[in-house]
Design brief:
about 130 residues; alpha+beta; two-stranded antiparallel ribbon; two-stranded antiparallel sheet; 3 helices
Protein backbone atom coordinates (compact mmCIF):
# COMPACT_ATOMS: atom_id res chain seq x y z
CA UNK A 1 0.00 0.00 0.00
CA UNK A 2 1.63 3.20 -1.15
CA UNK A 3 -1.35 5.53 -0.78
CA UNK A 4 -1.79 8.14 1.92
CA UNK A 5 -5.32 8.99 3.04
CA UNK A 6 -6.64 12.12 4.72
CA UNK A 7 -9.02 11.79 7.66
CA UNK A 8 -12.11 13.92 8.25
CA UNK A 9 -10.07 16.03 10.65
CA UNK A 10 -7.33 16.85 8.16
CA UNK A 11 -4.75 14.39 9.49
CA UNK A 12 -2.98 11.80 7.32
CA UNK A 13 -2.91 8.00 7.69
CA UNK A 14 -1.36 5.17 5.61
CA UNK A 15 -4.61 3.25 4.96
CA UNK A 16 -8.31 3.71 4.33
CA UNK A 17 -10.97 3.21 6.98
CA UNK A 18 -11.95 -0.29 5.81
CA UNK A 19 -8.36 -1.53 6.08
CA UNK A 20 -8.00 0.12 9.47
CA UNK A 21 -11.13 -1.68 10.73
CA UNK A 22 -9.61 -4.98 9.57
CA UNK A 23 -6.37 -4.18 11.40
CA UNK A 24 -8.36 -3.25 14.49
CA UNK A 25 -10.29 -6.54 14.37
CA UNK A 26 -7.02 -8.49 14.04
CA UNK A 27 -5.61 -6.56 17.01
CA UNK A 28 -8.72 -7.32 19.07
CA UNK A 29 -8.47 -11.05 18.35
CA UNK A 30 -4.70 -10.93 18.93
CA UNK A 31 -5.53 -9.93 22.49
CA UNK A 32 -7.34 -13.25 22.92
CA UNK A 33 -4.37 -15.03 21.33
CA UNK A 34 -2.08 -13.34 23.86
CA UNK A 35 -4.28 -14.55 26.74
CA UNK A 36 -4.04 -18.09 25.39
CA UNK A 37 -0.25 -17.77 24.98
CA UNK A 38 0.06 -16.68 28.61
CA UNK A 39 -2.16 -19.58 29.68
CA UNK A 40 0.11 -21.89 27.66
CA UNK A 41 3.24 -20.47 29.34
CA UNK A 42 1.74 -20.93 32.81
CA UNK A 43 0.66 -24.48 31.98
CA UNK A 44 4.14 -25.48 30.79
CA UNK A 45 5.47 -24.90 34.30
CA UNK A 46 3.15 -27.61 35.61
CA UNK A 47 3.22 -31.34 35.28
CA UNK A 48 1.15 -32.61 32.32
CA UNK A 49 -1.51 -34.11 34.59
CA UNK A 50 -2.05 -30.69 36.20
CA UNK A 51 -2.47 -28.68 32.99
CA UNK A 52 -6.21 -28.28 33.41
CA UNK A 53 -8.07 -25.02 33.81
CA UNK A 54 -11.66 -24.41 34.68
CA UNK A 55 -14.15 -22.36 32.80
CA UNK A 56 -17.23 -22.34 35.02
CA UNK A 57 -18.03 -26.00 35.68
CA UNK A 58 -16.19 -27.19 32.60
CA UNK A 59 -12.60 -28.44 32.83
CA UNK A 60 -10.29 -28.09 29.83
CA UNK A 61 -6.74 -29.18 29.20
CA UNK A 62 -4.27 -26.67 27.79
CA UNK A 63 -3.21 -27.87 24.34
CA UNK A 64 -0.91 -26.56 21.64
CA UNK A 65 -3.94 -25.87 19.42
CA UNK A 66 -4.83 -22.99 21.75
CA UNK A 67 -1.86 -21.01 20.43
CA UNK A 68 -2.44 -18.92 17.32
CA UNK A 69 0.49 -20.31 15.33
CA UNK A 70 1.23 -17.28 13.09
CA UNK A 71 1.70 -15.08 16.19
CA UNK A 72 3.16 -17.45 18.81
CA UNK A 73 5.84 -20.16 18.86
CA UNK A 74 5.01 -23.04 21.22
CA UNK A 75 7.66 -24.12 23.67
CA UNK A 76 8.41 -23.89 27.35
CA UNK A 77 7.39 -20.27 26.99
CA UNK A 78 5.22 -18.98 24.16
CA UNK A 79 7.35 -16.54 22.15
CA UNK A 80 6.07 -13.90 19.72
CA UNK A 81 6.82 -14.48 16.05
CA UNK A 82 8.27 -11.79 13.76
CA UNK A 83 4.84 -11.53 12.12
CA UNK A 84 3.28 -10.37 15.40
CA UNK A 85 5.99 -7.75 15.87
CA UNK A 86 5.55 -6.55 12.27
CA UNK A 87 1.77 -6.46 12.62
CA UNK A 88 1.92 -4.40 15.82
CA UNK A 89 4.25 -1.87 14.17
CA UNK A 90 1.89 -1.52 11.21
CA UNK A 91 -1.16 -1.26 13.45
CA UNK A 92 0.53 1.58 15.35
CA UNK A 93 1.25 3.38 12.09
CA UNK A 94 -2.39 3.10 11.02
CA UNK A 95 -3.80 4.01 14.40
CA UNK A 96 -2.06 7.32 14.99
CA UNK A 97 -2.60 9.96 12.28
CA UNK A 98 0.07 12.57 11.60
CA UNK A 99 -0.36 16.23 10.59
CA UNK A 100 1.63 16.19 7.33
CA UNK A 101 1.90 13.81 4.38
CA UNK A 102 5.68 13.57 4.73
CA UNK A 103 5.44 12.15 8.24
CA UNK A 104 3.25 9.18 7.23
CA UNK A 105 5.00 5.83 7.55
CA UNK A 106 3.54 3.46 4.97
CA UNK A 107 2.21 0.05 5.94
CA UNK A 108 4.49 -2.93 5.50
CA UNK A 109 1.52 -5.27 5.06
CA UNK A 110 -0.41 -5.39 1.79
CA UNK A 111 -4.19 -5.82 1.51
CA UNK A 112 -3.98 -9.52 0.59
CA UNK A 113 -1.80 -10.28 3.60
CA UNK A 114 -4.17 -8.40 5.91
CA UNK A 115 -7.20 -10.25 4.53
CA UNK A 116 -5.47 -13.62 4.89
CA UNK A 117 -4.38 -12.87 8.45
CA UNK A 118 -7.90 -11.71 9.38
CA UNK A 119 -9.41 -14.89 7.94
CA UNK A 120 -6.92 -17.12 9.76
CA UNK A 121 -7.30 -15.44 13.15
CA UNK A 122 -11.11 -15.41 12.95
CA UNK A 123 -11.09 -19.13 12.10
CA UNK A 124 -8.77 -19.80 15.05
CA UNK A 125 -10.94 -17.71 17.38
CA UNK A 126 -14.12 -19.55 16.37
CA UNK A 127 -12.47 -22.93 16.85
CA UNK A 128 -11.16 -22.08 20.33
CA UNK A 129 -14.08 -20.13 21.75
CA UNK A 130 -17.06 -21.88 20.18
CA UNK A 131 -17.49 -24.14 23.21
CA UNK A 132 -17.93 -21.21 25.64
Amino acid sequence: MNTVFQTRFGMFVPCDRETYRKLKRIRHLAGFAEVMARRWTRAQRRLPKNRVFRRGRERRVVTEAMLFAPFWFPGAQAMATPLLVRFMQNYGRARYPVPTVGEVLLLGLDAVEIDLLLERIETWHKSIFRQW
